[in-house]
Design a protein that fits this description.
The protein is mainly alpha-helical. The chain is about 85% helix and about 0% strand. It has five helices and no strands. Helix 1 packs parallel to helix 5 and helix 3 packs antiparallel against helix 4.
Length: about 160
């Protein structure tokens, strides 16, 4: 097993992308209900339902990506598509003016992007590493993923209390 410093740059890029995707997901998870109620006037139960369906659809797309899409389109194409969809969905959510546009972005574009991200990173890491390095690589990936979520939660709290 090599040192983690000896891993290829492409593996570190996947770590960085996974960190940012996790950061983005957790910011969305923490702020979606508040944003929907405060900015669009959704009731607490409607905003909670929006959040719940978003989570369910993200999970469905994760399974679909893992079972079908990555093998058919390839990991690189799927990763690029998911990042463009992520940027498009976050832009739609940020700049939308109506609750219907918010719902469309949250329930259509965002789950597809979120669902594609994690499986494609796992496939990429498997393809970019040697078998003897995989346990370390997947452990580091898990650490980067959780760090992205943890840091996002701390920053959201800091900005909300600022």
């Amino acid at each position: 097993m090599r040192s983690c410093l000896a891993l290829p740059a492409s593996v570190w890029m996947v770590f960085a992308l996974n960190f940012t995707a996790s950061f983005s997901y957790h910011v969305m998870a923490v702020l979606l209900v508040i944003y929907a109620t405060d900015e669009f006037g959704l009731s607490d139960s409607d905003a909670g339902a929006l959040y719940g369906w978003w989570g369910i659809l993200c999970s469905i797309w994760t399974g679909a990506a893992g079972l079908f899409l990555i093998d058919q389109a390839g990991a690189k194409r799927t990763a690029i598509a998911s990042m463009f969809l992520m940027i498009a969905s976050r832009s739609m959510i940020l700049f939308c003016r109506t609750a219907s546009t918010l719902r469309f972005a949250v329930l259509v574009f965002s789950p597809v992007a979120e669902g594609l991200v994690i499986p494609v990173y796992m496939v990429a890491l498997k393809r970019l590493t040697r078998e003897e390095d995989r346990a370390m690589v997947f452990a580091l990936n898990y650490a980067f993923h959780n760090s992205g979520g943890g840091i996002s939660d701390v920053l959201v709290d800091a900005f909300r209390n600022w």
